[in-house]
Amino acid sequence: MDNSLIPAAAPNGPDAPAAIPHAEPLREVDINLARLQQMGMVTHDGGRTSVAEDFRIIKRPLLRNARAAVSGGVRHGNLIVVTSALPGEGKTYCAINLAMSIAMEKDHTVLLVDADVARPSVLRTLGLAPGLGLMDILLNDDLSLSDVILKTNIPTLSLLPAGRNNKHATELLASQAMSKLLSEIANRYPDRIVIFDSPPLLLTTEAAVLAAQMGQVVMVVESETTTQREVKEALLRLDNCARVDLICNKARAFNGGDYHGYYD
What we know:
Strand content: 15-25%
Protein name: non-specific protein-tyrosine kinase
Family: Belongs to the CpsD/CapB family.
Distance between the termini: 23 Å
Structural class: alpha/beta
CATH class: Alpha Beta
Keywords: ATP-binding, Kinase, Nucleotide-binding, Transferase, Tyrosine-protein kinase
CATH architecture: 3-Layer(aba) Sandwich
Number of domains: 1
Order of helices and strands: EHHEHEHHHEEHHEHEHEE
Number of strands: 9
Oligomer: single chain
Number of helices: 10
Radius of gyration: 17 Å
Helix content: 25-40%
Pfam family, one: AAA_31
GO molecular function: protein tyrosine kinase activity
């Protein structure tokens, strides 16, 4: 697996993407599954690849915790944030693959949220245009989830874009409006698993604020690159989180391929 195939986030400044226009949001989008398969990612028709098998292992304890939440176990256990200490560790790659893998389940639907609001990359990685999304809901009382959620050609997978960037993103993510939105997302559909692609923990304040409101946190650690000090510092920012698990990404397996290790 070559995670380098996933494009890097575009910088702010003159080369940043143009502002999202105020327009009727696109309700249905087609994900090019053949393109994702060529990128080495999990797809419904991709067969039993090593990536697909890795994420089958990774998702199982997360789903158990999500089911426990329904019976009073992990609060908001069906809200799962995927983050990392630093950029470039593969968190978006893992968030998309995790969402794709869970979307194959017979008893669950998935909402994939691009919550890296300063440098969104979920839709771009999927080959889709940006649109109204999370930030717009928090800023506009007249917008609802149904106005901005994108249905996809995978019946069990929907997308919530990041929306337009805002300099008060941290405060918006910590607001009562965000808490209300998360409760609505978590409780409206008990079979829905919500995956949030978060900013890196050591780069922004938004990541820790977002993680504190989730039932489960998955931190992606790039093997042989991220230092132990960086991992420990990132974990300190998750002190208020009840459930934190680690994915060791880009590690070399015995057969020479890449490996995604899961640590409980």
